[in-house]
Specification:
The complex is a heterodimer of chains A (367) and B (317). Chain A is α+β, with helices and mostly antiparallel strands. Chain A contains 15 helices and eight strands. By secondary structure, chain B is mostly helical. Chain B folds into two domains: 1-54; 63-315, no CATH class. Chain B has helices at 2-36, 52-62, 73-89, 108-116, 118-129, 133-164, 169-175, 186-199, 211-214, 224-249, 260-279, 287-315. Chain B starts with a helix and ends with a helix. The chains are: A alpha+beta (367), B mainly alpha (317). Chain A: Belongs to the complex I 49 kDa subunit family. Chain A: Residues 122-289, 292-367 form the NADH-quinone oxidoreductase subunit D domain.
Chain lengths: 367, 317
């Protein structure tokens, strides 16, 4: 009798797959269920936004930034206008700074809610997804009230914001953050200490602090590995130094740490919004800035802490009204660099858990 | 000739009953899940969406029947039939009431376990013949899981058989006329329910068809009516394990005041609701954790339960 032979095989996971969060394709080399090699393949929604930007006025680029990380358009807007303002030396009225912080933090909550829902969905728990969307809906309603859009807000302007907010918005936001804390507790009741959830996430996909720094990870991934690095504190932009909030960190850098860091971040965002609403001054919502803005020749890079990590715009200007070069540092893309190393030795089911806690947005990965 | 006609008539009645049951179960699942998730669920077709399932069935009937080019055609075509037949056959011995049973076999329990374990063969056939790696992975997972969980499942039933002294389902129900066996076998009931959940691939053990990993698992390449067969069988199997649990542990159709079938359905649907509750609350285990749970948790426990029950019967029974 001849001995039975087994062989390795390739499994193409994506670009059409429910758990690759868009159009990421992972080419997995498998031995049964165990991953021997994982090769991420991307570019399925590459739109060449960096090149397009070279032929647009500075103002016209703002809507394009919406389409990068489409789950946190406000952060993208903010990073871009901060970079331009820095190069053009535009002073921003105080009310604008507060509004921007409120919007960015609301957007962080909305973005983390999607992440939480899809992570639970990837692990087979369907119900938290609906709960998260219920609350995200309220945030989107607030954005609709202020920016007029529900996904691509196009809200920030150089030296200001597109529209001032109404009193209903302020009241709605205050209501929302008052109730939202108990909602987080509700999600946690379903997941945090659930034995199955713990079995699926604890000790799974561990990133050591050294690896995290070596691969240039940022955002919740880096903090989950135990490194207390948040650009809102490390390199304060806008008016973040005025607010008191904690930077949650993990201990082990496994999937569960990445989960709990983001959960705690949502609670911190509530604190920030609360303080910003209390301190919101009256005044202009826009500085006088020409529509056809010309930037002085030079270059600048401004990173901000987007929900996914260090999100930055590098602008090179040659003194005209269009950027000579616009480079986007997308956290999802940089965070993805560790994936092929990290997935080795885990099982197919762990791929979705690990990818789920990475919280990638393909619009940003491909740009 | 006449007995044959009667048998045929009975089978058709069972088939009709199964069709209605499946529809009702799917409707129930959609409504239950919706209310778990603060939604309404189907609302448009009929009163509170009650006709939704008929609309869905019609849609699925009209779908194109796709057979993948590289599939192993005959195996691919047989698998859904086999999965349905094995689900269907189990109903022939389940006693809905003292008289409402197609055929009261004297080896009823053995028969049910036998025919339902054919499901695994059908699932493997479906996964293998589709010539799709996701389907293959789903099929392999299903085989590993279902065969493993069959052991604690059977071990947890054996004490009941010992108590009743019979393999006939009707006799087991009659043996519970003073009190249901769950009072004597609480651990056995729990072990049975857990193994049975894994046996019918429901969350947290829905690993063979984990849609976020394997997209749909073994039935990924099936469409239209053939897909319906799998879907049908899945819900029928869920009903079977719950009906079996009600029969073996909860006293089947026995109960005060209400007529016998009512009691049977009440108990069965209560267990169905428990399974649905689990599905819409819990995440899913990983395949190796699932195996650990079976071989290191359920199997020793069910062995202990069996030995203790045997000892108890020898000394006090």
């Amino acid at each position: 009798m001849t001995e039975l032979k087994t062989e390795e095989y390739y499994l193409s996971m994506g670009p059409q797959h429910p758990s690759t969060h868009g159009v990421l394709r992972l080419l997995l080399k498998l031995d049964g269920e165990v991953i021997l090699q994982a090769t991420p393949d991307m570019g399925y929604i590459h739109r060449g936004l960096e090149k397009i930007a070279e032929n647009r006025l500075y103002l016209q680029i703002i809507p394009f930034t919406d389409r990068l990380d489409y789950l946190s358009s406000m952060s993208n807007n903010l990073a871009y206008v901060l970079a331009v303002e820095k190069l053009a030396n535009i002073a921003v009225p105080p009310r604008v700074e507060y509004l921007r912080v409120i919007m960015a933090e609301l957007n962080r909550i909305a973005s983390h809610l999607i992440w939480l829902g899809t992570l639970a969905l990837d692990l087979g728990a369907i119900t938290p997804f609906l709960y998260c969307f219920r609350e995200r809906e309220q945030v989107l309603d607030l954005f609709e009230m202020s920016a007029g859009a529900r996904l691509t807000y196009n809200y920030m302007r150089f030296g200001g914001v597109a529209r001032d907010v109404s009193t209903e918005f302020i009241k709605g936001t205050a209501d929302f953050i008052k109730k939202f804390g108990s909602k987080i507790t509700e999600y946690e009741a379903l997941l945090t200490n659930n034995p199955i959830f713990l079995a699926r996430t604890k000790q799974v996909g561990i990133i050591t602090p050294k690896q995290a720094i070596g691969y240039g990870l940022s955002g919740p991934l880096l903090r989950a590995s135990g490194i207390k690095y948040d650009l809102r504190r490390a390199l304060p932009y806008s008016i973040y130094e005025k607010f008191s909030f904690d930077i949650p960190t993990g201990e082990l850098g496994d999937c569960w740490d990445r989960y709990i860091v983001r959960i705690r971040e949502m609670r911190e965002s509530i604190k920030i919004i609360d303080q910003a609403l209390a301190g919101l001054p009256a005044g202009d919502f826009k500085a006088k800035v020409p529509l056809n803005l010309k930037l002085p020749a030079g270059e600048t890079y401004v990173p901000i802490e987007s929900p996914r990590g260090e999100f930055g715009f590098y602008i090179v200007s040659n003194g005209t009204n269009k950027p000579y070069r616009l480079k986007i540092r997308a956290p999802s893309f940089c965070n993805l660099s560790i994936i092929s190393n990290l997935l080795k030795g885990w099982k197919v089911a762990d791929v979705v858990a690990i990818l789920g806690t990475f919280d990638i947005v393909l619009g940003e990965v491909d740009r | 000739m006449i007995p044959l006609a009667i048998m045929l008539f009975k089978s058709v009645v069972v088939l009709a009953f199964l069709a209605v049951t499946t529809m009702f179960l799917v409707y129930l699942e959609r409504k239950v899940s919706a209310h778990f998730q603060v939604r309404y669920g189907p609302m448009r077709v009929g009163w509170h969406g009650s006709l939704q399932l008929i609309a869905d069935a019609l849609k699925l009937l009209m779908k194109e029947d796709i057979i993948p080019k590289m599939a192993d055609k005959w195996v691919f075509l047989t698998a859904p039939v086999l999965v349905f037949v094995s689900a269907y056959l189990a109903y022939l011995v389940i006693p809905f009431s003292p008289f409402l049973v197609v055929k009261d076999l004297n080896v009823g329990v053995l028969y049910v376990l036998g025919v339902t374990s054919l499901t695994v063969l059908a699932i493997l056939m479906a996964g293998w013949s589709s010539n799709n790696k996701y389907a293959l992975l789903g099929g392999l997972r299903a085989v590993a899981q279902i065969i493993s969980y069959e052991i604690p499942l059977i071990l947890s039933i054996i004490p009941v058989i010992m108590l009743a002294g019979s393999l006939s389902l009707s006799r087991i129900v009659e043996a519970q006329h003073t009190f249901p066996f769950i009072l004597l076998q609480p651990l056995g009931f729990l072990l049975y329910l857990l193994s049975a959940t894994a046996e019918v691939n429901r969350t947290p053990f829905d690993i063979p068809e984990a849609e976020s990993e394997l997209v749909a698992g073994y039935n990924i390449e099936y469409s239209g009516m053939r897909f319906v067969m799998f879907f049908f069988a899945e819900y029928l199997n869920m009903f079977t394990v719950c009906a079996l649990a009600a029969t073996l542990f909860l006293g089947g159709w026995q109960g005060p005041l209400l007529p016998a079938p009512v009691w049977f359905f009440l108990k069965t649907y209560f267990l169905v609701l428990v399974l649905m509750w689990m599905r819409w609350t819990l995440p899913r285990l990983r395949i190796d954790q699932l195996m650990d749970f079976c071989w290191k948790g359920l199997l020793p426990l069910s062995l202990v339960n069996l030995i203790l029950s045997a000892l108890w019967m020898v000394f006090y029974g």
